[in-house]
Amino acid sequence: MKTPALIAPYEKDAKRLWLTRPHPIVLFGFVFYLAVALICGGVVFEAISTGGRDFITGLIVFFFGLIGLQMLGLAVVRGITYFTSYLLITDHHVVVLQGIARNLSKLTIEDIELTGTTETLLGRLLGYGRLLVAPASGDYLPTFPVAEPNSLEILINDCRKSSSAP
Fold first, then answer.
1. In 42, 133, 154, 166, which residue has its Cα 20 to 30 A from 19's Cα atom?
2. Angle in degrees, 0-180, between the axes of helices 55-84 and 25-49, rounded to the nearest 10
3. What is the pLDDT of residues 48-58, one digit of tens each?
4. Contact at 8 Å (CB) between 106 and 96?
C-alpha cells in the first residue's frame, strides 16, 4: 500500500512496521445506510408521483425525506472514513490519519503508556476491533475498526520494549 503524502514524513527516518486502512466492515454500514436512503427516496418519489396533495402525503414526503437524507449523510461519512483513513505504525511513531480534513494524530513510541484492544462478539468472529493507544495524559489516540487489533497491540508493545532497552 502506498503511503499517503501527509504521513510519509513519519516514515523518513523510521522503519514501517504496519500501514492499514479501516476494516472492510465499515463498508457494510455504508451499504446499509445507502440502501435505506434509496428505499426512503423510492417512498418519497412514489408519494409525489401519485399526485396526492393531502396532509398524509405531505407527512410521508417530509418524514421519509428526512430519514433518507440522514441515511445518505451517514453513508457518505462511512465511505469517506473508509477511503481516507490510515493507521501507520513505525518503530518511532503511531500515526492515525482520518477524514477529508485529514485529522492527523500521532504518538511517539516513548510516549505510549497504555495499549489495548476492544472487540465485540461480531468483531471477534470477523477479525476486527479497535486498537487503543494512550499516552500518560490518558487521552486515547482516535482509531477506527482495524483487522487484527491484537497483532497491532503486540507489535506496538514490542517496539516500546525495544526502544526502552539500553
1. 166
2. 160
3. 888 777 888 88
4. yes
Chain position carrying cell 440502501: 35
For residues 100 and 86, what is the distance between their CA atoms, to the nearest angstrom?
A: 12
Q: Which residue has the cell 491484537?
A: 150
pLDDT digits (tens, 9 = 90+) for 109-156: 989 998 999 999 999 999 899 999 998 887 888 888 999 999 999 999
State the Cα–Cα distance between residues 60 and 71, nearest whole angstrom.
Answer: 16
Structural contact between residues 132 and 126, judged by C-beta atoms closer than 8 angstroms: no
| Euclidean distance between CA atoms 105 and 94, whole angstroms | 8
Q: Which amino acid is at 62?
A: F
Strands 86-90 vs 145-147: parallel, antiparallel or unpaired? unpaired
What pLDDT, in 10s, does the model give residues 5-44? 889 998 888 899 999 999 998 899 999 999 999 999 999 9
Which residue from 94, 96, 98 is spatially nearest to 111, judged by alpha carbons? 94
Cβ-Cβ contacts under 8 Å for 118 (sequence gap 6 or more): 129, 130, 132, 149
- Given a contact cutoff of 8 angstroms between Cβ atoms, the answer to whether 119 and 149 are in contact is yes
Radius of gyration of the chain (CA): 21
